[in-house]
Design a protein that fits this description.
3 helices; 152 residues; OB fold (Dihydrolipoamide Acetyltransferase, E2P)
Length: 152
C-alpha cells in the first residue's frame, strides 16, 4: 500500500522562533505559522478561515531560522507531518501533531532593513534565502533518537 506524508505551506509566523539545544548539542527551533483561506459562502458573503500550525526545524536550518525570522514574516515550508507523544513530569500524557520542516524559504525581505541584502548573501541566494534539510539535519533514519529529547 502506498503512502505519502508531504506538506507545503505558505504563511506568516505567529511568534518569534524559539531556539533550543538538546543534550546531544543539536539545535531545534519551533514557531507558529498561520495560513489562511478566503472563500465565498452560498449567500455571497466572503469569509476567511485561518489555520494555525506548529513548525519544527533541526540543525543548521534551526539556527538560520532563529537568526533571520521573526513574527509576521512570510515563509514557504516544505516538510512532513509528525505526531509525538510524551509524559509530563507530573505523570500526564501530552501529544502534538506538527510540521517537521525539511525546507524553508523566506518569501520576503525584512522591510526597510540593510539585513535584507545580508540575508541573501549569507545563504548564497540572489533574492530569497533558502534553507534545506541537507544543511545539518540529522539523517532520516535517526529521527526517533530525537523525538523523546525535544525540550518542549
Amino acid at each position: 500500500m502506498a503512502s505519502l506524508n508531504k506538506v507545503f505551506l505558505i504563511g506568516r509566523l505567529t511568534r518569534d522562533p524559539d531556539l533550543r539545544y538538546i543534550p546531544s548539542g543539536a539545535a531545534v527551533v519551533s514557531f507558529g505559522l498561520a495560513t489562511s483561506r478566503v472563500y465565498t459562502t452560498q449567500s455571497g458573503e466572503k469569509k476567511e478561515e485561518v489555520c494555525f500550525v506548529r513548525v519544527v526545524a533541526w540543525g543548521r536550518q534551526a539556527e538560520i531560522c532563529n537568526q533571520y525570522l521573526n513574527k509576521g514574516r512570510l515563509i514557504f515550508i516544505e516538510g512532513r507531518l509528525q505526531y509525538r507523544s510524551w509524559e509530563t513530569p507530573e505523570g500526564g500524557k501530552r501529544n502534538t501533531l506538527e510540521v517537521r520542516a525539511d525546507r524553508i524559504q523566506f518569501l520576503e525581505r525584512k522591510p526597510g532593513s540593510a539585513e535584507a541584502a545580508t540575508e541573501s548573501l549569507t545563504t548564497g541566494q540572489n533574492a530569497e534565502a533558502v534553507v534545506s534539510a541537507e544543511q545539518g539535519l540529522p539523517p532520516a533514519d535517526t529521527d526517533e533518537q530525537f523525538e523523546d529529547k525535544v525540550p518542549f
